[in-house]
Amino acid sequence: MPECSHRSSPLDSDFRAWHDAVYPRLAGHGVWMRGEGLNIVPAREFERRSFRLLIARLSTWRDTADSFPHLLLYALAAGIEDVFPDLAYLPPRPDLRLYAEGNVPWWLGIVTRKAPRAFDMIGISNATILELVNLPRLMRTAGLPERPAERLRDPTVPILILGGANAPAAEILMGEESPVDGIFVGESLDEIARLIRIARDARKEGESKHSVLARMEKIPGFVRTSGGTNHVPRRPGNVCSREFPVNMPVLAETPPVRVEISSGCVAFCRFCAESWWRKPYREIPAAEVVRRARLMKAATGADRVELYAFNFNTHSEIGSILAALRDMFGEMTLTSQRLDVFARDEALRGMLKSLGKTSLTFGIEGISGRMRRYLGKALPDGDMFAGLRSALSGRPRELKLFFIAVGLENAADFAEFEEMLRRIAGMRKAEGAKARVIVSITPLVRFPHTPLENEPAPDAGAMAGILERARGAVMAAGLEHREAMGLNEWRVSQMLARPQCSGAWSVLSAAVLRSDFVFYGSIPGGFVSALESSVGKAGTCLQAGPASAVREPARSERRVTGVVSSFLDKEAEKARLFQDAPMCRGSARACGSPCAGCGACRDAAGAAAQTGATLRRQKPGRTACRPAREDRSSVPILATLGAEIRGMPRKLAGMALASALMRKEPDMIADYCGFKASHWGEENGAEWIFGDDIFFLEWRRETASFLVKKLGDPSFVAGLSVFLPGWLRIGGVWQEPAGAGFVLGMESPFPFRPSGLASRLGLDFALRRNGESEFVFDLAAESLRRNVVMFAQVQSSGDVSRMTVRPGRRFMPEKWVQACFALPSPEDWVRVRISAVYEGRPSASATS
């Protein structure tokens, strides 16, 4: 294996040589950093486009695989003229040693392998508050100054803007020591595009960073972290924009179509940031949801859809949405829903059952009625138990119930909780259900810009006692207990969410850089102790405790979320009196109630325009149903893959094929049922084979027959090329002729040493010389019957070997390569390039 001699400064722009030297030793052989896929701007465009944007995550690729805001931002930026986007992630924990040995920045563009300083702007996507712990070291390894004044003086340092779900809670980043130049707390794609265009145009015109940030301050929702005016409030995004980007990138993860159906939440739950940061509640009409889903299906080749909403069942047209999308996709994912809506809506319950929804998730939140009123969770006991009974009567596979430990619970609250759990266990038994009932309890983090932002938090000992008592109650009822957040994570979250002086970030950053800690989902007690020690030396800059020590946020800071301070204050007082919270006007209008008066709507006309959320029964609609299995047919397609995507999942290529076919023939979009398999698959290292493969795509039978005929037309096949990525070519419909099959060619930078074939694979063979440096494997009859390989020959010249193999049904690429060549280490087998050639011509008359 080539040694990693590439040790550079983090200011260097290009780390391709380092990556090429170490990728076999990276987690998953570095597939997460491959930067190849579908709807990806090619690396060569980096030099052709004048403005470069790095979209950076604070967690690993694997931990953000179920998230899509950064991918949406990528698609948005890729569509803006003269902008080159790239993506960067926190490296997996096992890879940190290799990064340190090479002096490589942790943020590295996965498409270009370029360091952050090679870009003009870094857009940091921040999903959770605990991720912020990783920011100091990510910046340190990239050579990015933490102090704003240093960054603004240095023209080689990109502008740093933070956004994402946690952005409104990132108050710790405000001040003269901020590690970022601005925070975007809005959600409008149009305004995000304006921010990018401002930075792009300013670079062309040679404007200073001060000037750029001053122009950005005029964008609603953008807040400058130091030296700004903070006078422009956030405004609701236009969720129905026709310019919604559909060309979402598909990389090593093969995601579903994620389609947003609403923004915000109908409720005013006082603990929940979503209820306050994204007001007013807005729905995307069913027709627009279906239009977007259809376009995204064609653009990505996805066969699954996930509805993106805080509570999907509050959408007033959810029945129509489910029916339309279930006819279009083979699989649908639905997340959290309100239990009271579920209880009242028999038609919706029937539809969910017809969809095969076997896992149900509900947030009950408070362990008692008193705690639910404090939290503003409007959930009467009647609706709660009716909903749970209905859920269990449907015989689900599992029922997940989420609760919050507030810190104010008393004996009466726990008595009510214990009785609730006994009733749930009794209902499960009475209904004959075998569902797993999983009860998750998380300690309350009091976030800024919510009514509870200044409420006292209990100390760690008191919270530990509450969590332990709740766990005991769950176990006593015979239900499963799950800890959603540990005490260490809770305490640090609360410290970060409620900073009490402008120097809080410096305290946190110093503690992080003095330690070896990196946040990968959990926080050890040692880091909490170190942080508390730093807090003690610095005063009360970071503190999770009593309200008296928590500063009152400035009115301008509160205003950036759109909800007026007077409404927050009123709801805070109602919480102290254990009074319930209202609903957003969208749902209240249905029963004639007045507007709650939160102030998020810009004017009366805006309030009247909000779509009505439903806490009433759905109108019965047609039942959603998947295409019957007998109405589906697989079309086998012979295609050729480039070496660029060695190691990538085969489904990625299947999605690219399906996307090209649907974009070429839009009438087939609804009839695509999904990727079924490929000849090589992904077991035993087969995903590292490039060249020819056979992909089985499932369609409705009538469309499958139509497609087979079309793929027999050379002009149709040629026309598909404009829709295919550069690493993929279509040969036509496959039908196996007699005697045809695959031949593999292997090119190895390592010497041929076949001694492992007998010991590892149990093959009996002799090597017969066939020329000066060529040998043919004479396999014994018993070895041929093993069906590992049917023929093999090798040319060996020094350290370079070339092998030809006709594989059998039990051929395993990884084991074969490791047995045949003298590898420096087992993981270096991926350096051997394996290409496949199909010896047979495609036919135009086969479906299966």
The structural domain count equals 4
Strand composition percent? 15-25%
How many helices in DSSP terms?
30
Largest sheet: 10 strands, mixed
Average pLDDT reading: 87
The CATH topology label of the largest domain is pyruvate-formate lyase- activating enzyme
Assign an overall shape: globular
Q: What is the CA-based Rg, rounded?
A: 29 Å
Specify the structural class: alpha/beta
CATH superfamily of the largest domain: pyruvate-formate lyase- activating enzyme
CATH architecture grouping of the largest domain: Alpha-Beta Horseshoe
Number of strands: 25
Determine the oligomeric state from the structure.
single chain
Helix content: 25-40%
CATH class of the largest domain: Alpha Beta
Task: Give the arrangement of secondary structure elements.
Layout: H1 16-22, H2 45-48, E1 51-57, H3 69-78, E2 83-88, H4 96-101, E3 121-125, H5 135-141, H6 148-153, E4 159-163, E5 182-184, H7 189-205, H8 209-216, E6 222-224, E7 257-260, E8 262-263, H9 274-277, E9 282-283, H10 286-300, E10 304-308, H11 318-328, E11 331-333, H12 339-344, H13 346-354, E12 359-365, H14 369-375, H15 381-393, E13 398-405, H16 411-430, E14 436-443, H17 460-476, E15 480-483, H18 487-497, H19 504-514, H20 525-538, H21 555-559, H22 565-576, H23 585-588, H24 604-609, E16 632-641, H25 650-664, E17 672-678, E18 689-700, H26 701-711, H27 714-719, E19 728-733, E20 741-748, H28 756-761, E21 765-769, E22 774-779, H29 781-785, E23 789-797, E24 800-807, H30 813-820, E25 833-839
Parallel strand pairs: 1-2, 1-3, 3-4, 4-5, 7-10, 10-11, 12-13, 13-14, 14-15, 18-25
Antiparallel strand pairs: 5-6, 8-9, 16-18, 16-19, 17-18, 20-24, 20-25, 21-22, 22-23, 23-24
Helix pairs in contact: 7-8, 10-11, 10-25, 16-17, 19-20
